[in-house]
Amino acid sequence: MSIFRLLQATCSKPPSRLYSSSNFVPSCGLSCGRFYHSYEHDRPPPFSPTEDRILSAALSHVPTHGFTTTALTQGARAAGYLDISTNLFPAGPFSIVNYHLVTQRLALAKDVTPARHDPIKIPTNINKLILRRLHANKAIIHRWQEALALLATPTRLPTSLRELALLSDEILFLAGSTDVTSVWYTNRAGLAVIYASAELFMTTDTSENFVETEEFLARRLEEGEKIKSFVGGVGTWAGIQAGGFVDGMRSKGVRI
Amino acid sequence: MNSAKALRSLYKSSPYSQTPLCDFLLPSFTQVTSRRDYASITTSSESPKTEPAPEALKSETTAKRRRPLTKEQQQFLDSALRVNQAGELAAVLIYRHQTPPITRSHPHLRPLMHHMYSQEAGHFSTFNALLAKHRIRPTAMYPVWTAAASTLGWVTGLMGREAAMACTEAVETEIGGHYNGQVRVLLSWLKEMEEKGEEVGEELRELVDTLKRIRDEELEHLDEAVGEGAKEARPYELLNRAIRSGCKGAIWISERV
Ligand SMILES: [Fe+2]
Ligand SMILES: [Fe+2]
């Protein structure tokens, strides 16, 4: 019960420092990839043109300056704005991290055509999609641990997790997964964990073209499949205990 | 006082009112959304004959809607389709578990039970496809509804023909009213769009048609159940009231989690 309360509190309490600064958050908020997804219109762009110019310029300064205020100021200057315009981003360097995450997720959605539903191909599709997304971190990988530290700050954690959840959802959608049973939840949670660990692994990977990350990812996905069939097994078992019990008895000739 | 009000409105517009933690682990009961304003009108017992028939429904064009749906409309569709899927899951399970005992003692009911079951299976797969297509999460209570519906079907099946039919009657009354309410909400949107001269779009038009068709099928089930002696069930009042309030509770919860 107390865990329930705690979860409830986490869910309903908005992180107070965050929402005074909506600038680094996609302007469309929840409607990006949340709620009923319509195919009849384009989604609103997540950043205003000004934010877009400054943050993308800042991002190009990240390889040299890291995810720092310096990169943000340099970005503003490069985009032709005064230094003071970094006031637009009260979240500071975190806005660059968020910009990278959001734009890369949307790029994935834009560049990849959703696969047709084919259960056999889903694991391979997922593998390819995660790799594709990881490769988008290449240019800044030597700075990515700084980003991870920012993402793990308690005040930023809700945003970080939310973005991770949206990425999982995007990858599963693009991979052609149409499962809408309770597996929907376990799939997304499992994928989020695998992606996050592969991303972290990649920051320490010095191999040619990140082949070790590739192997690491393949192993994690394989384990995930095993766990899934185990969990599926437990689910089936529980099912037999509940409704399936009746069917089982019926098949044995018991007239119930 | 004013600051509290401001804070609340800020919270309402804050994208953080729902974190992914809640999406995965515990979808929040406390979501502050305008969806609640709709909740009270998603049930309607009005006759389908009296519902408005906007011209846009009959439009032959296959044009796309150019204006995005409002956030409230998206939220409404999101929770409506989620509840519908949960309801059809329950219906499929109820009929599946009722069928063996009922058809054993009343072989003449076999075609009727089979007919209703296969229609429910059709509804269920329709909503499964809609959820996947529009990227809507299923209800977090999925396993709970599975167990509850199987039990309900099994128990009423064992109680005999009248109880099984009373169960169908009670469930279909609630579900039928629920679909009826949704159809009315969508029709009112269509009318509004039409008045503003907006293109309604294929997606919504198709959805209204689907919901209407399914609603009519549910109401048919209701009539058939009454025809097969639902009202003769003992204790009818108790069964009817218990099942109907169960349905109402399940709908309320599924709209939220
Ligand atoms: Fe149905
Ligand atoms: Fe039905």
TrEMBL record, chain A:
Residue ranges occupied by any COQ9 C-terminal domain in the UniProt entry: 158-226
Transmembrane region(s): none
Main location: mitochondrion
Subcellular location: Mitochondrion
Entries under Pfam families matching the protein: COQ9, COQ9_N
A GO molecular-function descriptor: lipid binding
Domain (Ubiquinone biosynthesis protein COQ9 HTH): residue spans on this chain: 52-76
UniProt keywords, alphabetically: Lipid-binding, Mitochondrion, Transit peptide, Ubiquinone biosynthesis
InterPro entries named among the record's database cross-references: COQ9_C (IPR013718), COQ9_HTH (IPR048674), Ubiq_biosynth_COQ9 (IPR012762)
Pathway(s): Cofactor biosynthesis; ubiquinone biosynthesis
Any single biological process term in GO: ubiquinone biosynthetic process
GO cellular component, one term: mitochondrial inner membrane
Taxonomic superkingdom: Eukaryota
NCBIfam families reported for this sequence: diverge_rpsU
Record PANTHER family: UBIQUINONE BIOSYNTHESIS PROTEIN COQ9, MITOCHONDRIAL
Similarity-based family: Belongs to the COQ9 family.
Protein task: Membrane-associated protein that warps the membrane surface to access and bind aromatic isoprenes with high specificity, including ubiquinone (CoQ) isoprene intermediates and presents them directly to Coq7, therefore facilitating the Coq7-mediated hydroxylase step. Participates in the biosynthesis of coenzyme Q, also named ubiquinone, an essential lipid-soluble electron transporter for aerobic cellular respiration.
Protein name: Ubiquinone biosynthesis protein
Organism encoding this protein: Cladonia borealis
UniProtKB/TrEMBL annotation, chain B:
Region described as Disordered: spans on this chain: 37-71
Superkingdom of the source species: Eukaryota
Any GO BP: ubiquinone biosynthetic process
Reactions that this protein is recorded to catalyse: a 5-methoxy-2-methyl-3-(all-trans-polyprenyl)benzene-1,4-diol + AH2 + O2 = a 3-demethylubiquinol + A + H2O
Comment on bound cofactor: Binds 2 iron ions per subunit.
Localisation per UniProt entry: Mitochondrion inner membrane
Task of the protein: Catalyzes the hydroxylation of 2-polyprenyl-3-methyl-6-methoxy-1,4-benzoquinol (DMQH2) during ubiquinone biosynthesis. Has also a structural role in the COQ enzyme complex, stabilizing other COQ polypeptides.
Name recorded for this polypeptide: 5-demethoxyubiquinone hydroxylase, mitochondrial
